Amino acid sequence: VAMGTKARKWHQGVPNKMEMQRGKQQMPTVQNMKDQYYILWVRSPKIKQWKPINIVSGTEASKSLKDFTDNDLGKAVGANALAEGQIVRALGMNIYGQKEEVTKQAISMHPDLKYAKELQFGYKEIKNNTEFNEKPVEIMEHVNISLIPPEEELKNVLDKAGEAVNSTATSVAKVGDNIKGFLS
What we know:
Elements: E1 10-11, E2 14-15, H1 17-24, E3 37-43, E4 51-57, H2 60-70, H3 72-77, H4 79-97, H5 99-109, E5 120-126, H6 129-134, H7 136-139, E6 146-147, H8 151-154, H9 157-183
Antiparallel strand pairs: 1-2, 3-4, 3-5, 5-6
């Protein structure tokens, strides 16, 4: 027996469960090298430990916005902040639109989240797809994860105006039904 050699799966005569789990884990890969991908994360606001839940492809609009912001003209105009905001908004509205399903998936993947009263979502952009496929562990680290704001903060004035129009139309329809019932 060589002195000083260390077994990874054992620590001081006790099995190292974290290392065993890491060995069993299958690391994700991305298929299309030209697409822009984001890793979605979830956490409890109290514990604040990020847990990965999915990898999603960016939409065509976000890809074109990203391409525009990468050039010098886009940076000079300040389009990079606008594009980043639109990407965050698109990711957030997609998550909040399917919140029940996403929450169920997150809890099934990470059972300790079932005790959390609310969940926060975050994202991390995969900047180099080839590098991610070769060494996903480095990109899957729990650093540089951006928080997706709550649903109320993501809605802009146009969304709120659209909701007001819809609620007004519903109210008018109810009033019309009540008048019909009264007159008959």
